[in-house]
Amino acid sequence: MADYKPWTEWFKQVRKTIPYGASPYVYTQQDDLEYRKKQGLPPADVKYKQLKDHLQFGNEKLSENICIFNLGSALGCPSRKTGECQLDDPERCYALGSEKMYGSPYFYRERQKQLWKTISAEQFARHVGQAFKKKEEYAIRARSRPKPKPKLIIKGKKKKKKKRVPFNPDMPYLMRFDEAGDFSKQSDVKKMSKIADILKKDYGIRTYTYTAKSSLDYRKVSKNLTINRSNWTSKKQPKKGTNVFQAVVKPTSKYICPGTASRECGSKCMLCVGGGNKLIQVKKH
Ligand code: SF4
User: Fold this and answer.
1) Ligand 1: does its nearest atom lie under 6 Å from the Cβ of 264?
2) Which of 68, 272, 279, 284 to mutate to test the pocket of ligand 1 (most atoms within 8 A of CB)?
């Protein structure tokens, strides 16, 4: 933990020097709540833009049809704190690596955590649905525009960058929780279930997540939320419709993850998205 202390100390120092409201990147939703409480103001509605700025559509490995939101940072991950982390050495967590290296992912995810704490399930689902609608409208408009002429590429001059898998209105829309972070308490599971129900019913969006929290009860999870339990250690029989996701040296299951680097995740491969009590294995590198 000592390695990351300077970041958190730095963060505290910066907050002292910047007046409240001067930077949305330093002050969080929680600060806003406390400020409003002190001023005798009612809690503010979490505006669409605030959440939208903390939703990520795709990344280098996942298609832009997948909206990603974290319940917190890897450094503050509840499973890391309780020893439920799936890794033999939690210091080797991939998400933690980027926080340690750049710092900014840590703050981004901590802000997401504050947003998660203060936003209601209904608001969250409504804003996510709206963000997808906007993306859809944009993609449909873009289809009717004439295609730009291809640029002249001089061979051997530039290294070809891998393109992201772009948003495609014909592919399923997915909500993925937790690239980093995990559930803290039972009410998080309940809240996510509610969000999954609204997203499915009102917008046709499917929701899935990964967790290492084996101490929580997943028996009442909505059928619209797929939970992928990483390296399950609990003796409790999980609810039917949730998967187990394992990283192993020699996969033996019939459900093998092609690896997110294959960029099939959420487009060609939907193993984690649909429930069904599957044992999904990925080969350890
Ligand atoms: S099994 Fe498929 S859906 Fe799950 S992480 Fe691997 S590629 Fe993605």
Assistant:
1) yes
2) 272
